[in-house]
Every structure is written in C-alpha cells, then in structure tokens.
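FORM 7B: Structural annotation worksheet

SECTION A. Query
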Amino acid sequence: MRIFEKISFYSDLDLIELSQKLERCLALSPFEYDAENENRWSWTYDQDHIQVNISWPYLSYKLQEWDQSVPDRCNYTMILMSDSPHVNDDTDKYGEAFVLSSLLPTYMSTLHELACHVYYHAGNHHQAYLAKHR
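SECTION B. Predicted structure
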C-alpha cells in the first residue's frame, strides 16, 4: 500500500455530521457507515481514488489504546489509504510529492476548519513530512 496516512483530531461533531461536512467541503462521494461494539466508522473514496476512513470510538481513549501514536485529546482518526492497483501502480502521480503537497494539506486544512487539534502522526510519508516541516 503506497499511501497509508493517519490524521487524528478532536471534533464536537458526531460522525454523520462530520462526514457530511467533509463530503460538501471536498466534493466526496457519500460516506458509508458501520459500527461494532467499540467503534463507529465511515468511509468513502475521493476523486483520486484514495480511501477516506474515519474512526470514532465510543470511548475516545480507545484510539490511544489501539495506536499509541495518537495524541491525547483526539476523539477521531482519519486514515487516508490507497487500496487500488490504479493508485499503487502510478508512482509518478501518487508519489511522495502528491502526498506531501496535495493530499495531506487538503485534508488537514479542511479538518482544521471543522475541528481543532489536528495531527498527522503516523504514516508511510510521516518522516518526509516531518523533515519538510521542521
């Protein structure tokens, strides 16, 4: 998987409100929703065939329990991932430059408008992102 990036954040919005606002702001396809005993989530694909997966556990501390890289005070995690051969095979279009200059800035700036305390804390391009933003 070429792209697998984790952004965590805090929002007062519930999952449906947040997902619908992201649909409108980013012109995303409608999200699908599911839930289990500890977690609720939504997912869709963007225009670049990147899967957008948002996780909202019933107990926010579960995010840190499942992934110790999630900063405190976050109640959501968004994972941006490439799960299609179309994306994974096109290294020119979907390389590091795309992730650092387009994908992450687009999602992080939109989340900043809808939430507070937005953190890109883990992923395949995290080290390059840190080096670029020092």
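SECTION C. Observations
The chain has one domain: 4-133. The helical segments are 15-26, 61-66, 85-89, 96-114, 126-132.

SECTION D. Sign-off
Analyst initials: ____
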